[in-house]
Sequence to fold (496 residues):
Amino acid sequence: MRISPDAVVFFQWGPISLNATILFTWCVMALMVLGSWLVTRRLSTETRLSRWQNLMEVLVTGIRDEIREISGQVPGRYLPFVGTLFLFIAVSNLLSIVPGYEPPTGSLSTTAALAGCVFVAVPLYGIAENGLSYFGQYIKPSVFMLPFNIMGELSRTLALAVRLFGNVMSGTMIVAILLGLAPLIFPVVMQALGLLTGMIQAYIFAILAMVYIAAATRAHRQEGQANQQAKKGDLSDG
Amino acid sequence: MLIDWFTVAAQVINFLVLVYLLKRFLYGPIIKAMDKREKRIAFRLEEGQKKKEEAEREVERYLKKNRDLDNRREALLSEIKGEADARRKELVSEARNEVEVIRTNWYEAIQREKDAFLQDLRQRAGKQTCAIARRILRDLANVDLEHHIIRVFIERLRNLGKEELGALNESILKSGRRINLRSAFEIPQEMARQIAEVLQNHGADPVDLQLEISSDVICGIELNVHGRKIAWSLEDYLETLEEALAEALEGKRIESTD
Fold:
């Protein structure tokens, strides 16, 4: 039994292998970019707008609101990263109802890559926001906490990767197993459940990434300042 | 091994590419479009607000204009009314004056007519009375009325009081003994002589008696000497009659105007 789509290799050239994970990732990317291009090709700035544009606006606005709510900051800088995490995972998971499709998120390589991105992005955002003083939070409340803080960083990254992988993989596995046991009704139910789980996992992944980033960027701020910033962000961002 | 490190690296690159592409094709345009729309809506709202304010100002202006017009109309109306009142009073007063003038003229005309009528009546009545008296006297006494009148006159001359006589003599002397005797009829020589005698008896010197016939003296004799007058005629009676007639006419007129 195949656990990861990494195992399906279409093309191998030395260490470079074109496996199902990468292929389906490209498919998902192509779909998303093509869809975005089609919708944003003719954007209306009037009060009347197309349904697709409306859908996209709802999506983007929803993600922005969510980011603003969690971070208490202007969402502009975080939107591409967090939004893309959510959309990529969500689309990858939702497409699992297409026969023959294997969600790339069901590969630990993909989830590890995404978690790695988060792992790198968090300090980058922190440094961008607070400068090098960002690293100060690793030795708080005392220097002795440094190893534990680093371990915490690593473990939560690992948790991110494994949680997503486990959920998506298990969903796929359950459907595969059920197909063998009771091929008629149950797989459909489980598939539907899988869709729900996929959406929830996408949401959780994005939210956690945002929480980590928010924690890093707010590390040295007083609560009052943060609130002020949040209000300012609300005002300036509409 | 569940993790293929090449795949991990490829996925990281894929993800970063996707982030860029989505930023380029999704977030950027969508947010830009939403911002534009927001701005446009804000602009429209602002514009609407401006237009509303302008409209309100316009309404206020029109209302003020209307009020001004109303006020001016009121003022003009009251002015015109005042002028009309004044004009009306003037006209009424003019009409009253005219009526007054007409009435006065009318009264005067009536008065003139009345006077003329009375004059006429008096003359006619005098003549008629004379005629009647003459006929009555002629019928009754078979004597000429004129003789009677002359006799009455002579009698009156004879019976003058002392004071009157004195005054008469004085007048005769002042007039150079010229005495004018006017009568409505011809005085016979005999009668004239008797009158002269009576006067001579009073005055002792002969007098120059000048006889004159005048229709003014109605049925009587009038003796004029240096402004002094002694007369007997129907004039007195006729005047009484005239007064009585005038009173009667006046009474009738008052009755008719009432």
About this structure: The CA atoms of residues 47 and 201 of chain A lie 34 Å apart. The mean pLDDT of chain A is 86. The first strand of chain A starts at residue 9 and ends at 13. The two ends of chain A are 51 Å apart (CA to CA).
